[in-house]
Amino acid sequence: METKKTTILLAEDEESMGTLLCDYLNARGYQTDLYPDGEKAFKGFCSKKYDICILDVMMPKKDGFAVAHDIRQVDANVPIIFLTAKTMKEDIIQGFSSGADDYMAKPFSIEELQLRIEAVLRRTKSVQVDPDQAVFDIGKYKFYYTKQVLVFNNKETRLTAKEADLLRLLCLNRNNVLDRNSALFAIWNDDSYFNARSMDVYITKLRKYMTEDPEIQIINIRGKGFKLIA
Question: Buried b vs exposed e over 47-76: b needs ≥16 C-beta within 10 Å?
């Protein structure tokens, strides 16, 4: 039986770069659709099921950050990789805040892009979870890990896959320190600077999600990691 090809949404406004990447990935066995601007990319995403999205940041009509934000409103789980010449810390933080799973600075090697695609897909594949470790009471909140939902007074907050993974680790280590590097390797499979910044962004988001219960805290333990107190 023929193996289903991994489908890739590629948004790149520079024609030569987009065509080169598209041809390379298709030659490696992926099924890649190239979109020349952010508006067309989001319309394409809504019309077809993709396994991963690769978004250039600086595009006409709708930039990559805006496209990622719109995609996350539709699908909280699909992996997103940004391609960009913007490497300032603020840009990296904005990228991960928009829902990125990885961030590649231009210029880059196409071979490295393929390796990162494979690594992100491995990290984001669904895993079997012990039912006893899938539902948590956090103060006045209830967290359903497999559904990626945080509930307070019947109000649901949808979490991304990474947010849910991180909150689950915090819950499993409640009132104890969650080691920073252990969390990075468990969720991102490495402790690179970009992934560390991403985790900081997600910690900030988790704090905001749980502000309705003032007795809940996620505190930084300098040089070690984080502690969920509830």
Answer: eeebbbbbbbbebeebbbbbbbebbbeeeb
Report in angstroms the alpha-carbon separations of 187 from 3, 30, 31, 96, 126.
27, 25, 26, 14, 12
Q: What residues have CB less than 8 Å from 103, skipping those under 6 apart?
A: 81, 82, 84, 92, 95, 96, 194
Q: What is the per-residue pLDDT for 3?
A: 63
CATH architecture of 131-229: Orthogonal Bundle (1.10)
Domains 7-124 and 131-229 share a fold: no
Chain mean pLDDT for the chain:
86
pLDDT tens for residues 23-33?
999 999 999 99
105-116 pLDDT, tens digit each:
888 888 999 998
User: What are the structural domain ranges in the chain?
Assistant: 7-124, 131-229
Specify the CATH number of the domain 7-124.
3.40.50.2300
Q: Given this model, what pLDDT does residue 122 score?
A: 81
Tokens of 96: 């991960």
pLDDT, residue 20, reads 94
Q: Is this structure's pTM higher than 0.70?
A: no
- The contacts of residue 68 (CB under 8 Å, 6+ apart) are 53, 55, 80, 82, 95, 98, 99, 100
